[in-house]
Amino acid sequence: MRAVLFATLVALILSLVGTPIAVRYFTRRGYGQEIREDGPKSHLVKRGTPTMGGTVIILATLIAYFLTKVLTWKAPTVSALLVLFLMTGLGAVGFVDDFMKIYRRRSLGLRAKAKLTGQTIVTLVFAVLVLQFRNSLGLTPASEHVSFLTDISWLSLGPVVFVIWSALMIAGWSNAVNLTDGQDGLAAGASAMAFGAYVVIGVWQYGQSCGTSASAGCYQVRDPLDLAVVAAALMGSCFGFLWWNAAPAKIYMGDTGSLALGGAFAGLAICTRTELLALIIGGLFLGELLSVVIQVGSYRLRKGKRVFLMAPIHHTFELMDWPEVNITIRFWIVSGLCVALGLGVFYGGFAATK
Known about the structure:
The protein is mainly alpha-helical. It has one domain (2-274). The protein has helices at residues 2-29, 54-72, 78-104, 112-129, 158-180, 186-207, 224-245, 254-271, 278-281, 283-301, 313-319, 324-352, and strands at residues 145-147, 151-156. A hairpin with a 3-residue loop joins strand 1 and strand 2. Helix 1 runs antiparallel to helix 2 (54-72), helix 5 (158-180) packs across helix 10 (283-301) and helix 6 (186-207) runs parallel beside helix 8. The chain starts with a helix and ends with a helix.
């Protein structure tokens, strides 16, 4: 359990110290945020604020995880490495996207096909590898079953459909966090809470492991404690970054951070066998994504009619003259409630089997 504490503290310190260094470096290089012209006019004052701060989150998470392994004399596990690969790979795609925005001096980066291609390659590699590497108990980092609190025994997808299912999940969560990252501190704060939930889930699963055979009230997850360490490192990194990203933000995470965090969230859900539970824990991200889906669907199917003033939905509240800080705090409250509900459902499912 010390590993969870070490990972949190190291990531928090690295992110707290590293973010202002990144601010100064990116400012000197002129790596400033571009603002979409059709967005709220209040955001235009943010043009030029350093972006690509997600690099700090990624590096702090990686260093914290591997330093924790050194401090505890434990070898890295395959499950944790695959989640870190997914985070870093999607972060790299986001980094290229952010850099292209800066280079072209506009709010559009990579072309949609190029961005989708990069995300797809990383996702497919993860989805294929996560079904490999059986341990001595016969467990792989993920299973072919759809999962809620544990694997749903009667809902087996098979390897091909599982890869497609994983790709949809990862694309959905990475884009959901990306859409949420539209206000100072919103995505970083919500992500910290969501990863905190996975710290609790991983530690609990480790304490209630089934061992060699499944039975009521236990979990068959390959490396639950190490997944908790990854989640702890992510949580610490997000909190440290939030210190500088809270309003008024000194730096933005950009697609580098939002795609990486969304991918890490999806990877943790897949490897802890809580894929459907993630819909509750990440309820805020899901709501932001659905607001865009509803808006686009309404616009196309109802001949230009919109449901919201603007999507994602946090922009609607801005156009209703809500102060940005108020929106962020209230959305954090919603995120916290979703996390609390998700953990309640998780424990309630465990208690019901005892």
